[in-house]
Amino acid sequence: MAAEIDGTSKGLLGVFAACTLISGIVSLVYGVLLLIQNLHVGVYFGVINLFTTSIILIVIGGLLIITVVLAVSGALKDISKLRLVSLVLLSVLFVVLVIVGVWAMASYKTGRLEKSIGADIKLFRDRSDKSSSDFTKQADYLKKHYNCCIVYDSNTGPTQTPETRCVDLSINENADKNDLKDACANAYFDKKSKDVFRLAILTLATAGVVLIGLLLYGVVCQRARAGYAAVSRG
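== Tetraspanin ==
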């Protein structure tokens, strides 16, 4: 008959469970908020897609919560396979969080995010199907949410709406074309860069807490294995 783990191990297990559970809840909640924020976004520019990232955070949060249950059960009931699965899951989730956090921070700090947004918006602005409903919808979204305009030839057909064709260079010859071209990229970057920076800080902080939990659980597993082995020999 296996004995229970000692009081010190239970204390370490409790700290591990608290750290990992809080990390999972934070990741899950932030992922849901980010998903809601980007659920009806009409345009996605730049190297980081916040909609996809929100799904990743939700999955990570859910798996962290599940891992807590598996890890605690494995430690208390002396189920070595559960302990091993828990350690593997924690390690994988830690690595994924680090990758997301470093990727987001590097994109923000190196200017890659800003350059990619500018390049994507240029490609969007230079599209040949400017009279399509898809182009009109995205251009109107930029105007409504970022107070900027996509500049293009006004002779795109009678269906083009005045709201989308907000700048007509054939009429306003004094307009600064460079300023008009960069307006959407600058406005979009100002908003998205803040979201990406928050994402980087949160994921890296969460990864740090998960690492602490992983180390604590490793100690718990070692102590539990030694304790159960001593009981079986006795």
